[in-house]
Amino acid sequence: MPIAARPPNILIVARRPSTVRRAMAIHANLRDCRPGKPISKDISLSMSKLPRLVLSLVLVALLHLIPTALPAATADTTLNADAPATRPPSRADAVAELKRLQTEQDRIKQLASSPTSGTQLEGLDDAIHQLASDVDKLSAALTPQRAQLQAQLDVLGPPPAAGTTPEAAAVAQQRADLNARKAQLDSGLKQAAEVKGNVTNLSEQIAKLQRSRLKNQLALRSASILGTAFWEPLFAPSQEDQQRLSAFMGQVTPLWGMAWQPGRQTVTALLLLLAIGVWTIGRRLIERALAWFCLTRLPESRLRRSALALATVLATVAATAIAVQVVCFAFVPPGELPAQVQDLISELGKLTLTSALIAGLGRALLCTHHPSWRVPALADKVALAMRPFPSVLAGLLLIAGTLEQLNRTADTSLQVTLLGRGLVSLVVVLTIGAALLRANRVRTKLAAAGERPEARSTFAGLIHAGVTVTVVASLMALLIGYITFARFLTYELVWIDIVLCSLYLLTQLTRDVCESVFSAHHPSGKVIKQLFGLGDSHLAQASTVLSGIGTSLLLLVAVIALLTGGFGTTPSDLLNSLLTMLGGERLRSLNIMPERILNAVIALSVGTCLLRSVRRWLDAELLPKVCMEAGLRASLITLFSNIGYVLIVLLTLSLLGVRWENLAWIVSALSVGIGFGLQEIVKNFVSGLILLTERPVKVGDMVSIGGVEGDIKRINVRATEILLGDRSTVIVPNSQLISQNLRNVTMSNSTQGVATLLLTFPLNIDPEQVRELLLDSYRENEAILDKPAPSVTFSQLAPNGITLSVTGYVGSPRIATATKSDLLFEILKRLRAADISLSVPQTLRVENMAALGA
């Protein structure tokens, strides 16, 4: 019988893939049948296969009905799901839309990178919001299509495994088409996500440009705070502002109603009570717990004071953050919120934490409850006078900042915006000004009463003068109508105060931590001494160095915070700015990257410790067993240390990313410097290497050079230390030991010294008697060796007498001088006893004599 034609693209619905493949095979054979053509053998009737055949025929009939029934079912499903009635975009439409979005993104990025006016920035902001909306619409349109394709792939199931019955070609083709379409949709969704991320970055850049432009437009003048025009928006707002505020409140009011609706009132009330309890009682409990830890676990030093101050700040900020989170649980539903409401909640959270930080820093630095815990040198009466102002400033900033944020979020008019900024500036100016006046008044009273106020440094005086000038300038700006300028000054003043107070507290904490950890009387210092074999002086040096490094890093972070941050900047924002600066393209072009610096520091530290350990092992264990000579051991250890330090420096430079081809200019500069001013240093350095390798002299040798005689104590890279007999040390450059005549008494490894005396006697003495007297003196001295025996030599015969040379050997050259002294004492004593005198040198004397005639 003839088989009716059907479309090639069909949707097969079945649970078992084998059944689907069987049905598709039957359908393909039936479709290929024409009138008069016999049916394939694969579908020949058989009684044993009759049930399976009946099921296959039923599936084939369903396959013929699906193409016509599918649109109706899809329409019903769409209507039931309340989805939009618009037709989903086709593949070409999606690709075209993605290209348009990317082109629009590139255009906005190019405009944002060039100087723009305020109107252009607002236009770019609107374009950014429209682009984000288009991206969301495209993603929302492509996501259901991908889900539908995934559902069809799940129906078809995975391809048959190898060795099983192959599936029909139509099924394989359909699976390949579905996978290709799914890959295209995945690529489109990925590109849309990338565009969305770029849109977010562009929005942040435009916001920064707007803030920068606001700072550049500080000369905008408006009504003074003393005029009625400034306060008019507060009592008679315009119709447009009322509509915008009403529209915004229409988004916020449902949240309040949902929080107090029946069934949730109890939960909301309990959460509010919990937030109040955390902010009051919880904060005190956290402070007491941290104070107990600091007083019982930390050493009795200045570390306790700085740690207690930091604990006060952390407790205040942590309790406030927890309370804010509890309030958010009470009033913010778990679902998605409008973008304006989310921005308002985020900004209010930052403002609350900043206000908590201000209050915490004030309580920590003033510390009126425990004056002995106070870190700065403030008089008690001054601290008591300034006690309420940090909390008052934090509270007023929170209220005024909330009003300003509401104006910004609701996009109110310029008059309302200036009113909010003016209120914030007025609050800050009055609070800080009152604090300064009260503190100065107390200091004046203390001085009048004869009490000495606190000692203040020059830097503190400069800060006090700067704050006073800023407050006066802000107040004058408010009075003459420069509201934006006053708001800028006050916000910068608050931010600078926050940064400087935090820097002072963290700097003191860093110094106290270093002093306590590396203290010789603290357990940590004792452990460090035993672990690294350091002395007390080394611990003090390590404490000073680490304290300096920590202070420098904190100062760097403070400078970055002052330059890139502002009021409301969170630690995460500051960290991002710091990472952006450290990982910038300029630093990367110079191969200056944090990871390379860290690796180089680790390699330098580990290499130095390892080299010192090996050096101690060579000096104490290996070389004493291999080489018995102390001078050779010292030379080998010095040579090993020099080579090791050179290798460590090369490894450190390599880890820093220094390329030797880039150091050509350094080599050129060194060559010029060597030719002019460094030739002596290089000559001594090369001479030191020659002394360590050829070893004409070594440590322990007794040498004489340029009238200096003593023992070589140390051979350094540049000079050699010679220890004299009076225990003083002479520093001789290495080049002199190579280029000048040097007498090495102990070079031949001889352990004997020579004590020789030259004595001159008159011509009328008995030489034999004198000879025996001298020999007896040498033989009876304990330092003179018997072998070789002492001897007397007739050295010279002159008109003024005869010269005899007496020679005797001693056990060491270093005792020859002392032995000579003892021998001279003994010889002179015996000569006097024998009535033998030494010869007196003959001299010609010419005297003025009187004339003969006289």
Automatic annotation (TrEMBL):
<dbReference type="GO" id="GO:0005886">
    <property type="term" value="C:plasma membrane"/>
</dbReference>
<comment type="similarity">
    <text>Belongs to the MscS (TC 1.A.23) family.</text>
</comment>
<feature type="domain" description="Mechanosensitive ion channel MscS">
    <location>
        <begin position="681"/>
        <end position="746"/>
    </location>
</feature>
<feature type="transmembrane region" description="Helical">
    <location>
        <begin position="488"/>
        <end position="506"/>
    </location>
</feature>
<keyword id="KW-1003">Cell membrane</keyword>
<dbReference type="InterPro" id="IPR006685">
    <property type="entry name" value="MscS_channel_2nd"/>
</dbReference>
<feature type="transmembrane region" description="Helical">
    <location>
        <begin position="307"/>
        <end position="332"/>
    </location>
</feature>
<dbReference type="InterPro" id="IPR022249">
    <property type="entry name" value="DUF3772"/>
</dbReference>
<feature type="domain" description="Mechanosensitive ion channel MscS C-terminal">
    <location>
        <begin position="762"/>
        <end position="837"/>
    </location>
</feature>
<dbReference type="InterPro" id="IPR023408">
    <property type="entry name" value="MscS_beta-dom_sf"/>
</dbReference>
<feature type="domain" description="DUF3772">
    <location>
        <begin position="189"/>
        <end position="249"/>
    </location>
</feature>
<keyword id="KW-0472">Membrane</keyword>
<feature type="transmembrane region" description="Helical">
    <location>
        <begin position="545"/>
        <end position="567"/>
    </location>
</feature>
<feature type="transmembrane region" description="Helical">
    <location>
        <begin position="387"/>
        <end position="406"/>
    </location>
</feature>
<dbReference type="Pfam" id="PF21082">
    <property type="entry name" value="MS_channel_3rd"/>
</dbReference>
<keyword id="KW-0812">Transmembrane</keyword>
<feature type="transmembrane region" description="Helical">
    <location>
        <begin position="458"/>
        <end position="482"/>
    </location>
</feature>
<dbReference type="Pfam" id="PF12607">
    <property type="entry name" value="DUF3772"/>
</dbReference>
<protein>
    <submittedName>
        <fullName>Potassium efflux system KefA protein</fullName>
    </submittedName>
</protein>
<dbReference type="InterPro" id="IPR049278">
    <property type="entry name" value="MS_channel_C"/>
</dbReference>
<dbReference type="InterPro" id="IPR010920">
    <property type="entry name" value="LSM_dom_sf"/>
</dbReference>
<dbReference type="Pfam" id="PF00924">
    <property type="entry name" value="MS_channel_2nd"/>
</dbReference>
<dbReference type="InterPro" id="IPR011066">
    <property type="entry name" value="MscS_channel_C_sf"/>
</dbReference>
<dbReference type="InterPro" id="IPR011014">
    <property type="entry name" value="MscS_channel_TM-2"/>
</dbReference>
<dbReference type="InterPro" id="IPR052702">
    <property type="entry name" value="MscS-like_channel"/>
</dbReference>
<keyword id="KW-1133">Transmembrane helix</keyword>
<feature type="transmembrane region" description="Helical">
    <location>
        <begin position="663"/>
        <end position="682"/>
    </location>
</feature>
<feature type="transmembrane region" description="Helical">
    <location>
        <begin position="344"/>
        <end position="366"/>
    </location>
</feature>
<feature type="transmembrane region" description="Helical">
    <location>
        <begin position="418"/>
        <end position="437"/>
    </location>
</feature>
<feature type="transmembrane region" description="Helical">
    <location>
        <begin position="267"/>
        <end position="286"/>
    </location>
</feature>
<dbReference type="GO" id="GO:0008381">
    <property type="term" value="F:mechanosensitive monoatomic ion channel activity"/>
</dbReference>
<feature type="transmembrane region" description="Helical">
    <location>
        <begin position="634"/>
        <end position="657"/>
    </location>
</feature>
